[in-house]
Design brief:
Number of domains: 1
Strand order of the largest sheet: 4-1-5-7-6
Bound molecules: iron/sulfur cluster
CATH class: Alpha Beta
Helix content: 25-40%
Number of helices: 7
CATH superfamily: Uracil-DNA glycosylase-like domain
Largest sheet: 5 strands, mixed
CATH topology: Uracil-DNA Glycosylase, subunit E
Order of helices and strands: HEHHEEEHEHEEHH
Number of strands: 7
Shape: globular
CATH architecture: 3-Layer(aba) Sandwich
Amino acid sequence: MPAGMTDPTDPDRNCALCPRLHAFIAAQRELHPEWHNAPVETFCPEDGPASVRLLIVGLAPGLRGANRTGRPFTGDFAGDLLYGTLSRFGFSRGSFAARPDDGVELVETAITNAVRCVPPENKPVGAEINTCRRFLSASIGAMPNLRAILTLGKIAHDSTVRALGERVSAHPFRHAGRTQAGGLEVFSSYHCSRYNTNTGRLTEDMFTNVFKDIANFLNEPAPVAVSPSRA
Ligand code: SF4
């Protein structure tokens, strides 16, 4: 379990709403009984979901990353860039050591995935993305002070836009994109996967610039009026 508080809207450990993913996890439990091998809960700050102003939405747990360790973006390459960047911008405290007991604490920030169970070859199918959206929606709904979401990759972005009740065609994914949906500011970036960084699709500078935009936005005073969709 992550060091911070977990989100009460997380799925049951044995959630079987997606039969293919449930079976894949069952096989992993046989192969690696010491691994987490279950839906990965949202990683929240110690002060709980009500303290969250920034939510980061990834795709799904990596087989040997979050599926092994039980904490989002922990245990494989993607976490090195994400947690390093969070720390530099003050969105986390402590030294990331790719273990759920490394003591990292998030600051007014939470991290989750569009699909909570590890998919084979990192590829969830449409039905799985749609089915798991209920947990993403519930997590967002449990964060009354949320102001911004960062989506990592197109699948996370599109599912987040739908979770906010808006049409994807009105909010297309693009790297360094920024849009308003459901009363929230939605930023988007290419996923910080090893593949994307190795191929140069996403550089550290590109990722840093996205977080500069987010930090600048969160440093602006919050509007007094609350959007009807978040009221
Ligand atoms: S992906 Fe989500 S909805 Fe599907 S089985 Fe896992 S937790 Fe349940």
